[in-house]
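Journal club side-thread
Mid-discussion, someone asked how the predicted structure for our own chain would compare to the paper's figures. Pasting it here so we can look after the session.
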Amino acid sequence: MLNNLIIRSEEPEDYKDTELMAMRSFWNKYKPEADEHFLIRIIRESEDYIPEISRIAVYNGRVVGAVYYTKAWIVDGDTRHEVVTFGPLAVEPTLEGHNIGGALMRETIELAKAAGYAGIVLMGEPYYYPRFGFERGAKYGITDAEGNTFDALMCLPLNNDFSEIKGKLVESRDFEKLEDKDRLSEINKEFPNYRAVKVQEGFMQIFGQHLGAVEAIEENIYMVRYWELLIPARLSDDLTVTPEVGSDVQFIWNHKDEAGSRITKVFKNLLE
């Protein structure tokens, strides 16, 4: 983890910096562009927001991570149990690999427990959250609002016996405001105009990999532009198309040894 990383409550003067960081964190990750910065504004305005256990991460005076908690409910007929959920959990993309997200999770889990909440239920990346003790919601009889269960629906009991808490996860109705595309368009005018990228039709989530563009080639090393960074990468052994300067690529970023980074796919941006 980064030395001198500070985990603290968000203040109004942090708002714009936090939103920009979240925008960068999710840009082109699940779909072209991002709306998590808009979601953060919606959460701050919501009566279901829990700022007491939400936190940002600051490094060298810069906001480099954030996690926002809101109230949620597990509903089974007339029975309704209050729990909490969180999201987005965002990390500055150029500082991935420094356990910023882990620091935010560990601190806020303890805050939620100390505050007396029964547990945390979320829909998130199933390869990431089990390291903090999250398990599949199906183990506890918890489904989404439509009664479905899947690996991404997870829960972490904190202060209650979850054998008595089962049913459908119901999140804040304020999340529905995310569908206001006109407001999102207005908010986006406040931020840099980053390039939108679409790799494939349909859902675009790319676990454990990143999108970049080849900026230079030096023998067998391909310099991949990723935000403000140039990351040296080699070609994956099973790559069938050789990238050129300017090629859009998908790559695995080895944070501990950049020489171990690998380009895994050359693609055409479907938006261009």
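Post-session note: The helical segments are 15-26, 36-45, 100-114, 181-188.
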